[in-house]
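Submission sheet (multi-component)
Chains listed below:
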Amino acid sequence: MNQPTYVLLIDCPDRTGLVHNITGVIYRQGLNITANQEFVEHEQERFFMRTTFSGAVDETLMLKKIRKVLPPGAWVRLTPKRRKKIVLLVTKEQHCLGDLLVRHQFDELNADIAAVIGNHDTLEKFTHQFGVNFHLVSHEGLSREQHEAALQEVIRRYHPEYLVLAKYMRILSPEFVAQHPNRIVNIHHSFLPAFVGASPYRQAYERGVKIIGATAHFVNNDLDEGPIIVQNVIPVDHTYSVRDMIQTGKDVEKISLARALKMVFEDKVLVHGNKTIIFD
Amino acid sequence: MNQPTYVLLIDCPDRTGLVHNITGVIYRQGLNITANQEFVEHEQERFFMRTTFSGAVDETLMLKKIRKVLPPGAWVRLTPKRRKKIVLLVTKEQHCLGDLLVRHQFDELNADIAAVIGNHDTLEKFTHQFGVNFHLVSHEGLSREQHEAALQEVIRRYHPEYLVLAKYMRILSPEFVAQHPNRIVNIHHSFLPAFVGASPYRQAYERGVKIIGATAHFVNNDLDEGPIIVQNVIPVDHTYSVRDMIQTGKDVEKISLARALKMVFEDKVLVHGNKTIIFD
Amino acid sequence: MNQPTYVLLIDCPDRTGLVHNITGVIYRQGLNITANQEFVEHEQERFFMRTTFSGAVDETLMLKKIRKVLPPGAWVRLTPKRRKKIVLLVTKEQHCLGDLLVRHQFDELNADIAAVIGNHDTLEKFTHQFGVNFHLVSHEGLSREQHEAALQEVIRRYHPEYLVLAKYMRILSPEFVAQHPNRIVNIHHSFLPAFVGASPYRQAYERGVKIIGATAHFVNNDLDEGPIIVQNVIPVDHTYSVRDMIQTGKDVEKISLARALKMVFEDKVLVHGNKTIIFD
Amino acid sequence: MNQPTYVLLIDCPDRTGLVHNITGVIYRQGLNITANQEFVEHEQERFFMRTTFSGAVDETLMLKKIRKVLPPGAWVRLTPKRRKKIVLLVTKEQHCLGDLLVRHQFDELNADIAAVIGNHDTLEKFTHQFGVNFHLVSHEGLSREQHEAALQEVIRRYHPEYLVLAKYMRILSPEFVAQHPNRIVNIHHSFLPAFVGASPYRQAYERGVKIIGATAHFVNNDLDEGPIIVQNVIPVDHTYSVRDMIQTGKDVEKISLARALKMVFEDKVLVHGNKTIIFD
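Outcome: structure written.
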């Protein structure tokens, strides 16, 4: 019989014997650890751990036993290793959506795209080509509060574990974000820090930058802030027009988002404060 | 007999027939064009050209003939292809200086380092190991005006074609910079735009960036602004301490500065406004 | 009225006055040069040039005039700047095909995909999702000669300017290739030179490589040889399984192929012997 | 009082409870684990671990206790965290040597360069500039056996922990290599696999490659084989002459060697068969 596999994530203050004691709990349950990574952040003496193990487990009991060997205030997550259920939010640009739909169709995403929600209908037909649900939730004539309530109403039907902003161009309110803590992944059109304000590629062009980048990150309060998961770059030069820079930006965006999601969906990314710890 | 080689650089408004007319001037002098690159910037309809040719030339006459076929307001530079004479300014960090001194000693820099000027004596002995002049021009007890006057006094003795700020950590005044237009190359500890203010690597660490970069650029008014010549990056992750990030930053700084200088000293870099056109 | 734009490509022995004479021909026709790049390869004293100009042109006359100012044995191509018509060949893997179909649907490819031909039907439904023709040309029970004759029969219906091997896993005969000189672009699963023989990723894994790459190139005689257009890499490490390496390889393959095609379809790639000259 | 820090490296067949049992040994000695990384290679079910801890330790006793909880045939190394003592071997090229000597002088190498040995005297004066011993051990008129005996005689005086081949251009015999198992680091002028035989850059140029790389690796039997530690690349294009490619190759060589040495000298690199496991 194929045993289920679990991923255990821990974030707590460091203290002596943590690894020994945690692995002891797993070991005494007769479970088999298949991977184990820890990291101690020495500025704040913080301990991070990712462990995968296989075997039959009473999850509640297991969590209780693990918490017993951890310091107070520890954050723990125990999840069976399985495909995530996700919902994508989009506006008009297709490059990230297209990349994710193709990966999804050929089962390379480690996730099920339950639905795509757009605030425009531009990508409806395209999404349907892949046999995926599309919901138009227009913001026209709605307050931000009303629009987000409408979004939440659709999202709730699917119970997604993650929301992916695949070039969703509306700011989300702190209230909305707070309902999905460390569960929203965004792709940002540049490095962070970066050119702020409108037309970032126009600004990059004017400044004569030699590199175009993208940043995939969790969304906390601010759309363009939050813990960074992946940053990538592609070199450009003076022969690139603003349009060429935009196209290059799209390529690096879609690759960066896909790489970030792969790691997030495999439970390899821990968030602490405004940083990520990635056990890749 | 080995013929001298010349580099001709042109920056002017675009108009029909420019390439034909310019190459015609060279052609009719019986000179042999060995490389030729042009670029038209279509937003401002600006024409840029770099041509190398070999043969005996009356430089003044040649320039006069070329100007005749160019629109008014054209910028032209005609220089024999030869090693540049340069002066380095440093403070206390050795990584860029060391890299340049080693390249210089083995004749890989296409330039002669006439002298190194430091506002501290930290690198004096190190510079002397390479048989290169070192001048201490301390800023202690001097106004910025007085310090820069002292710098200029030393610089003037060497008639350098370029000043290289190899981790020179003092701000230069607009007056100083104006005396060396597009002749000062600086290496900046990050991308531009970037974390501003003190301790940029501390800020980068706090923000959890996944990439460390460096920017080599000409200095115009502001120390950390000016036309970008080279930008490079090296990936980092959560296991990097602030110290590791600083070390990584040094590696990417020295490589970026050396690449930028190579192109500048081969007259491959044109400056227009706040951008560079690089004919590499 | 919007004037047509032309791309002129030249490859010939170098000699004095070429740029002047060629641009003179264009200039005297009252045409406006919008971009111009030359490159002289000094080992063989070979001259390469790419010029774009706009205006109404008698193509045959123009070519005749240009040939007059070139040395004997010159290769010249004059083409209106327009979207290319292409046919893709595939087998079972979808990552490159998917990337190209998405770009095509949103008009980012500078080409029309007239049809996709597969030697398996695996990707038929997927191709149809994008409204693109799919032809199954199975090799089952056919000699290579017969199979290629069947392919040619389908290809000929579309008069494509380029064939793109988007993970087409059959060797093409020299006879087939010779009918499309410098008109077939392939994506290779590694650098060249590289691990040869079966299971290259298995070999790369065994060898513990730290970088995975891909090469987009023209096909001449041999499937995995021919002038290189683009090479890209993504770093890997010891935590990558063979499967992870394969996935990484797919990502770098699709990006590399798309970048190569963009440059080829904009007539920016010249082939000389076994090398490319790229005027990007 | 500042406690000493130790690095424990383990390579053994995987089995249940290893992490728990190993950390238990450390924990019961009252030692403080400051970092811990494990990796299980699933093809061969092999377990790798790197643990750093601080505290006063009886090394022999500690090793004995650890071996008790490991399967038979385990490889274990326990070393105090300290600067390594190294000897460099060079021939005529200075770029790697120069980079290492500058880092050494400013204490960035985590190692002491006890001596440099050259089979030519080209770099003697340069080495002396940095106050480092240089030994000329010419191979002229000697058999390989005699030359290596002479090398060993000089090396033995210094008791180095690592030999670094900083562009040492002679093949070492299997007998020589066997005396320094996994203790010789070499920098190779290309990827592996790569162009073999003489003039690799000439071959790369003829082939029109778009990327130049370098590989830092341990030397086992064959000079250009052995477990890969670091591979890096820098893009090139058709404008690069053979000479430009050589210069680019040097830059990527020196950076790659320095990065590899940093990880090796911090005991972050485990060797298993022909692969490395890097706990970075």
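Remark: Chain D has eight helices and 13 strands.
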